[in-house]
Amino acid sequence: MTFFRQKRPVLVLSNDLYNHTSLDIIVAAITSNISMRDFSVLIAPDDLSEGRLKTESVVRVDKIYTFSKKIVTSQFGHLGNDKMNEIRAMINKLLT
Description:
Keywords: Toxin-antitoxin system. Belongs to the PemK/MazF family. This protein is an alpha+beta fold. It has helices spanning about 15-20, 80-95; strands at about 1-5, 10, 25-30, 40-45, 50, 55-70, 70-75, 75-80. It has a 6-stranded antiparallel beta sheet with strand order 4-6-3-2-1-7. It has a two-stranded antiparallel sheet with strand order 5-8. It is globular. The termini are far apart.
């Protein structure tokens, strides 16, 4: 998970190979407005395998963007495998 200049948290979806060979990253929006919508996945502080999440938040898998890596300002954690698998399944549901 990463912050951008305007301090908007996002979840990096692109894999390490893409991230190391591209000038861009593929991300999904994260919001602390936890009104659940279709194609949203709730994340809690204990879902992180590394780092810290201040409050429960929602990953909006219907809000996927490509950004230049130059605008990344910081990283604040990593989601655990179980939660990442849940997010991948939701993306698959969105696209199929």
